[in-house]
Amino acid sequence: MAFGERMKEVLKKLELTQISLAEKLGISNVVINRYIKGKTNPNYDFLNKLATTFNINITWLITGEGPMFPTRNIKTVGNREYFYLPILDGVSCGSPQEIDSAEPLDHIMMDTSSLSGDFNSYFAFYASGDSMEPYISNGDVVIVKQCDNWVAADERICVVRVEGEVTLKKVKSFAEGKEILLQPFNKDYDPILLDRYTLRDSLLIGIAVMSVRNL
Prior knowledge:
Layout: H1 3-14, H2 18-25, H3 29-36, H4 44-54, H5 58-63, E1 75-77, E2 80-92, E3 106-111, E4 122-128, E5 141-146, H6 150-153, E6 157-162, E7 165-174, E8 179-183, E9 192-194, E10 202-212
């Protein structure tokens, strides 16, 4: 089933029209129509909004695997339990870069004891670049929990969309949350300041909870 067909299933299940879905997500109906007709691949911002707003299984949205709504997709190996996370695309550890990913690049198998809460609220990215070194290196797999709350993200490493592009940086909140500083660890890179104007067009996608070194 193509992504456009899955979108039709979502609309049917939620009893929404394209126009009402667009209004709830704050995007153009034209964009949703292009996704449904397969003219454009959905970007992660749209997938994240759709998944979090309606509690839809993001793995199903991306791959068609599993149920539409979250379940604990657990596999037992020996005496331990694991679940699979989709690795979506590279997130920039440098200057923000655009991410358009309709299919996962790979999957990573995670021990259920390593992450808490609903496993379907997590996803993974490949780190791209060196602005977060020495803690996160190019090629590492970054495990992210979906979150759009800037307060919860303060002093955490996060995936953030800035003016339509995506980057991985440490979040620092100022001026009672009216300004956000995106900080790299590598001193060769400059921080990115989101003031009250640029913050309107920026989106917190999720909080990084773990990185897995790609040896």
